[in-house]
Amino acid sequence: MISIPKKTSKKKLYRKFKGINMIDNNTVEIDGNTISLDELINIYKEVNSEKKSENKAEMKRKNEQALKPYQAELIKLQRHLEETNQKMIILFEGRDAAGKGGTIRRVTRYMNEKHYRVVALGKPTEEQRTQWFYQKYISHFPRGGEIVLFDRSWYNRAMVEHVFGFCTQKEYDDFMKGVKGFEKDLTRQGVILIKLYFSVTKDEQARRFERRKTDPLRQWKLSEIDVQAQDRWDDFTKTKYNMIKQTHSHNAPWTIIRSNDKHFARLEALKVIVNSINYEGRDVNLDYTLNPDIVISGAREIEIMDAQRTSSGKFIG
Fold it and tell me: Measured in Å, how far apart are the chain's first and last C-alpha atoms?
């Protein structure tokens, strides 16, 4: 492919193509056909754009193919849960546009739909506001042999509700004091609980928001909360720090997924899930090692954020 610098003049441009004869300053002849230099430039741009689209589509196809061996392992894991009557809950938390939804779709793509559910609860009803806080979540908990994936969970109270004042300070404090005990009861009763926090940088979040604004297929994702997320970035960061520090435990640890690169975030999240339990038929030829640049324990994340605050006076993200 011919490389053309942006500032290349029309006169220099035609010299890059063999078999092109210049008729005048704005017209060339190619194999007996006359064409303007402007039209030639537009043709080149179209061909170059099509080539980029083809490369992007090919990369996307390769990325999806790379996930398939681990998606196959998830089917085995799911079968094991069915046979042993075990229950699994996976929480997907993180900032808006951090990649939670896309990862959930890759996790569930080939699963037996009879034995998993995705739960994404909306704004609580007036009746739910009068109930025990966890009641609306418990009603969606898995039966034996089932996986439930929460696209945001009870940790809404520790993040979005707290930052935007959708709950009182007492409601927030009560949640932070009681959630570890709640999760300890779940795991003591045999529930496999996986807590994933998807961590995206401020610049990448802004880029994804901008794409949502301009892409008609993604505009539905952009909410009023999203619009304010960039302005409230530091508030969310501080709340994230407090949430992970106070709710990371041996029984229910947090796993942080660096999600600026969507593909690697999805791949590593799949690995975290298949590594959570032992099951028969595991493909021993697969690499289940977690990428330490993508997957960080909750405890390690707190150490990193503490170091950021010490060196720069504030958290970065």
Answer: 41
Q: Is the pLDDT of residue 134 over 70?
A: yes
Residue 49: pLDDT band with limits 50, 70, 90: low
Mean pLDDT value across the chain: 89
Question: How much is the pTM?
Answer: 0.82
Which pLDDT score is estimated for 40?
Answer: 73
Higher pLDDT, residue 134 or 123: 134
Q: Which residues of 151-162 are buried (b: 16+ CB within 10 A; e: fewer)?
A: bbbbbbbbbbbb
Per DSSP, the residues of 178-232 read HHHHHHHHHHHTTEEEEEEEEE--HHHHHHHHHHHHH-TTTGGG--HHHHHHTTT
pLDDT for the residue numbered 72:
98
Q: Tell me which long-range contacts 236-242 makes (C-beta under 8 A, separation of at least 24).
A: 236/95, 236/159, 236/163, 237/315, 237/316, 237/317, 238/315, 239/158, 239/159, 239/162, 239/163, 240/159, 240/197, 241/302, 241/305, 241/315, 242/158, 242/176
Strand duo 254-258 + 295-297: pairing: antiparallel
Distance separating alpha carbons of residues 77 and 107, to the nearest angstrom: 12
Q: Do 170 and 259 form a contact (C-beta atoms < 8 A)?
A: no
In the prediction, which pLDDT does 51 show?
67
Q: Which residues pair with 151 in a beta bridge?
A: 92
d(CA 205, CA 117): 27
Mean pLDDT, rounded, for 226-247: 93
> Domains along the chain?
70-312 (3.40.50.300)
**Cβ-contact 101, 119 below 8 angstroms:** no
- Counting every residue written for the chain, the total comes to 317
Does residue 50 carry a pLDDT above 50? yes
Written as six digits, the tokens of 96 are 């808006």
